[in-house]
Structure formats: C-alpha cells, structure tokens
Amino acid sequence: MSAAPARSSSWHASPWLLLAAAVLSEVTASLSLKAALDHPVLYLVVAAGYGTSFTLLSVVLRRGMPLGVAYGVWSACGVALTAVLSTAIFGEAMTPLKGVGIALVIAGVLAVELGAQQADPAAPVGRALPPEEVTSP
C-alpha cells in the first residue's frame, strides 16, 4: 500500500467557497428579518447572519478577490436568492417583470466578472493568496 499524501496543517478555503458562504449567510439574515416580524427571537439570526456575511466578505477581499467582483457577486446572488426564496417561503409574488429583473442582475454580475478578467488576464479572478500573504481580519 502507498502512503496517503501529506496534507497541509492549515486549510485555506477557496475565495469562491467563502463568498458562497457569505451569500448564504446574508440571504438567511434577510429572510429571517421578514420572519422576525412575527417571531422576534429571529432577530438574533438576523444579527448573526449579517455579521457572518460581512466577516466572510472581508476575508474574501483579503484573499485577493477584486472588490467589484466580490461585492457584485455577493449582492446579486443575495438579491436573486432572496427574491426566489421569499416567493417559496412567504408566498410573495413572482411576476414576469421580477424574473426579468433577476436575470438582468445576474447578467450584470457576469459582465463585471468578464470585465475584471479582461482587465488583467494574467491574474485569475478570485485566486487564493499563498498562506504567508494572508493576514487575519
């Protein structure tokens, strides 16, 4: 049998994975904000969700993702997911115009992402910095 490859003692999540977690935290907080109107204890989830989201977003920026890309993806995904989930959870209306708006938000984020890649094709967007270049938030 061959030995398993040695693993690094410190694990560094991909900036994209951290950004996805930031989006999910923000969406959870936003949905909880509506639910907290009837169940005030959920304001704790709101505060924790937004705090976690902003913390993760700052780590993503520290890892080298451009602000325009990180914030664009974070906000657009948050808007789209919140709109879709509020329809499913709270029964809010999903109109054709709302659907077009969500599609335009997503298209705008894609345009920002592609523009960032064109600005510096040698530097991959969202690359993780080597551990020695990462400082804690």
From TrEMBL:
Organism name: Janibacter alkaliphilus
GO cellular component terms, semicolon-separated: plasma membrane
Q: What is its main location?
A: membrane
Stored InterPro entries: EmrE-like, Small_drug/metabolite_transptr, Small_multidrug_res
Recorded hits in Pfam families, A to Z, give: Multi_Drug_Res
Can you say what this protein is called? Small multidrug resistance pump
Q: Name one GO molecular function term.
A: transmembrane transporter activity
Keywords annotated in UniProt: Cell membrane, Membrane, Transmembrane, Transmembrane helix, Transport
Question: Where is it localised?
Answer: Cell membrane
Keyword Glycosyltransferase in the entry? The reply is: no
* Protein family according to the UniProt entry: Belongs to the drug/metabolite transporter (DMT) superfamily. Small multidrug resistance (SMR) (TC 2.A.7.1) family.
Question: Which spans are transmembrane here?
Answer: 42-61, 68-91
